[in-house]
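User: Structure please.
Assistant: Input sequence and predicted structure:
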Amino acid sequence: MNLTSGYPLSLIRFGLPFDYPKLQENISTEVVIMGGGISGALVSYYLTAAGVANVVVDGRSIGLGSTCASTSLLQYEIDTPLSVLQHKVGLYNAVRAYRLCDQAIDSLEQLAERTKVENFERLKSIYYAASIKDTKLIEEEFALRKKHGFAVSLIEKEDIKQQFGFNAPNAILSEQGAQTDAYTFTHALHQYSIKKGTRVYDRTCIKQIEHHKTGIRLTAENGSVIRAKKMLYATGYESVKYINKRIVDLRSTYAICSEQGNDGDLPFKNKIMMWNTADPYLYMRNTSDNRILLGGRDEKFVNAKRRDALMHNKRIALTADLKKLWPGTVLKTEFSWCGVFGSTKDGLPFIGEYPGLPNSYFALGFGGNGIVFSLIAAEILKDIITGKKNNDADIFSFDRI
């Protein structure tokens, strides 16, 4: 699948930081991970740390799928508000899912320090009402999060204007949040795992997958074979072709990034992440090198040609969205891109076994919290593969729909 188009900031800024070999021989391992983006890198890291031999294989160069196009906002907040999610999956599971996302940000920070990722920064997050009709949603959402111990405060119109310089009826300010760069994080994780003995292959397209009761056999286009006891699918939106039921709605999403500026040139009075209650929602953040990155304006994904044809108009619309918040702002867009994005019925990812594919597991971090969901998937799948009970696995299982 053609996942992205345009010029993602991460790819332009960091290029190809490391080289990985193409598989040219027959190999065997305990676990084979198909997909070398952020999801596969996190799972590989956790398995490697647990002493489980694993091999990562990707059909592209590492990170050149959805990972390089990620806008890399790290939030515990799920696309589905907690006050809505409780009616879809039950209060306990809803709160637990939010709490796991909250904890995942702390875990990602620890991983960034351990693997020497430089592009990790703590940020507060604002979730604001896009219109007057959404003020009640914000109030209910705040009350429920506060009740269950999340570090949030409710801010009204006057305080929003004073503290952050834009107009909104009300908003939730969350203390827990961060930003990173999914692309460089992915490479850092792989490099760490490789030093511990993990093998990572890219530009290796798998043409055949054979599932057996005793293991897995993968055959690459060049005839090389990988034999493994277990397999993990971490190919994101491309994984839907292996699943016989509809679990995700695919959309085209768009992002732009400004030229590098000075602190005084940025409209944000405080360095924060922002998103709103609109559908599709607008989201934005400052980058570590003083750029404004914003995205949204999602469309139903039809095909890559249609997605790409809309990019020019979406770039104009996103610029207008920013100027609506901060009139008079001069935004000089340097990079723009688009990609495939997916949403599930409840906003949660799919993690774990899928019936009909023995000895196989999925790490599908669908939704706006892809990186955070991938961390949760890595923790759950590490437990499952090492034979440990994970009490949170059922929340994200395929059986829930």
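The domain at 249-343 is CATH 3.30.190 (Ribulose 1,5 Bisphosphate Carboxylase/Oxygenase).
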